[in-house]
Amino acid sequence: MESAALSAISRHLLRPSSNPHHNSTSEILPLRSFNVAPLRRRFNSLSTKCHHASSGNSSANPNFSCSAVASDTAAPASDNVSTPQLRLRRLVDEFVSLEEPLDRVKLLLEYATSLPFFPASARVLSNRVMGCTAQVWLSVSTDGYTMQFSADSDSEITRGYCACLIAVLDGASPEEVLKMHPEDFAELNVVGSSGKGGVQSRVNTWHNVLIAMQKRAKAAIAEREGRPPVDPFPSLVISPGGIQAQGSYAEAQAMFLSPVESKIKELVSVLKEKQIGVVAHFYMDPEVQGILTAAKMHWPHIHISDSLVMADSAVKMAEAGCRYITVLGVDFMSENVRAILDQAGFEKVGVYRMSDAQIGCSLADAASSESYVQFLDNASKSPPSLHVIYINTSLETKAHGHELVPTITCTSSNVVQTILQAFAQVPDLNVWYGPDSYMGANIAELFQQMGALSDEEIKEIHPGHDRKSIKSVLSRLHYYQDGNCIVHDMFGHEVVEKIKELYCDSYLTAHFEVPGEMFALAMEAKRRGMGVVGSTQNILDFIKNRVKEALDRNVAEHLQFVLGTESGMITSIVAAVRELLGKRGTGSPKVEVEIVFPVSSDSVSTAPVDGSHDVASLGVVPGVVAGEGCSIHGGCASCPYMKMNSLRSLLRVCHQVPDEGGILSAFQASRLNVKTPLGRSVADVGCEPILHMRHFQATGKLPDKLVDQILGKNAESMS
């Protein structure tokens, strides 16, 4: 549901090389002559007068004034001195003079016939432009001061797009290429009659070919200025022939993707013998996930997912006869599993965590702080108010919050629709979201963007809203500003700048918890069909869908994805991609999928690797063979808390149950028998916001009980 909402917003708001063995500078070829005379002759034939204004033609481009055109055309009319902006103005002028969409398409096809010859030898993966429905190839030549482009496609419409871009940008300086924006071409208004999906795919073509041109321009500037090549992020390349790791961090991840068979057999044997189910979060250690993924083929009661689904899966396992549930996650996840099992009548099913120490979570800790209590106290003084709390918090936090302010939980997949529905359903409502500050800021930014849409476009996102209602809610949306996930916090300025330089033409995935700069970059990629913003499941689904589309095209492909979330996702991604690639018969065109791991400089260890150092003094989590490491602050997008769930602990717990001697007492998930300040069971009150969310997911509306609580009509139910 959330992915659709974000897609609608990005739709209306208007890699290094696809070959992993090519870096950004290897494609900068020696300067060569390039004949665009057939395209330029068209511009020479255009009038430089602002004839639209004089004729009263309302279809003229409103961004181009007569005075501006007159000023530019006062210069000599030679193509050698005409700027890309002037050439674009002439191009737009020509297209907008045609009132009928079919005539504009015909003109585009005429441009396609003028596209210079593109040799078959240049139709290679390193020249492919990703994100286009058709196959598009782009070749670049430069001396560092002038860019020369050639392109081709297996679609005539797309060839026309490429011809227009080349007519405008060929011969420009790298700086002039970088000044061009995708929106500058929107006035061409070539939409055809293929429906919304076709229109959007054509807009994406403009965007993605231009982005590819600009990536080459950035590389040309860097080479001209003598800057050394920027080292790429580590990555894994998945192909039908296996997995190739690039960079030591990727090697550490890949090490466990082919688990030891004896470990698989040991785990499966004890799970079957003692009827143990396993629920694990996507962010688990790669060794554990590798073993679990393989073991699942022999024992069905293993499930790897995001936090919400873990408890549901545990109930299904108990219903199927499992006597014990092992939870691989942080403590609030095991608490949730325990409480949900109890509510479902499975009090006798044992629930075990994977450490005798606390397995914390920075977000859950933020929601239990004094400042968060103060945040909720302010909410309670501003009726009517609704507290929307992220699912990744403890039951105790949910319970205490619900007694202060009527509360509903949310996930990164449904938070936007939850808040929009609440505003639509309860007049003059104040919404208080927490504890993730980045997600709160991203939600506020989304609503700001929605305010610029038309009423019709907003109703596609949520039928209960229009421009007036969206603008009215902006002042009534409050979010906590002192909480974040230590993993997603690392996707800051340094990482974003490197993505812009090396991976601007790649598919970009980002969790909703990332900082605003990364969020904006992912939303920009999403607008041109090259990105996703959402939950871990949204990210996995996006990658799978892009791979399916590539396989359906039945041509050689190299798809590159930047993984904007915890690196533990890689095991599930590899398993899904391998399954898809395995369905292809021998002799099919080769499809490769590259997963890029953003690593900040905070995650680079300069300590010796000869064993002479004291590991306890390092700011890294051991496990990486050299160079790159994992900062305890999440510098390599790897959660140190999640990594406390080891294979050794899982096997120990499984072998030890039933725990007749009490050896595993510290491993048992907490059963919350404590009371809230109002004397109610924490487990009961803490589960109620979750039940409210489940009602919303099933019906699309807030439950009447919650609405009554918000309006103060059912105060006794809160006490």
From TrEMBL:
EC number: 2.5.1.72
UniProt entry keywords in alphabetical sequence: 4Fe-4S, Chloroplast, Iron, Iron-sulfur, Metal-binding, Plastid, Pyridine nucleotide biosynthesis, Transferase, Transit peptide
GO terms classed as biological process: 'de novo' NAD+ biosynthetic process from L-aspartate
Keyword set includes Kinase: no
Predominant location category: plastid
PANTHER family listed in its UniProt record: QUINOLINATE SYNTHASE, CHLOROPLASTIC, QUINOLINATE SYNTHETASE A
Name of the protein in its database record: Quinolinate synthase, chloroplastic
Organism: Rhynchospora pubera
Lineage: Eukaryota, Viridiplantae, Streptophyta, Embryophyta, Tracheophyta
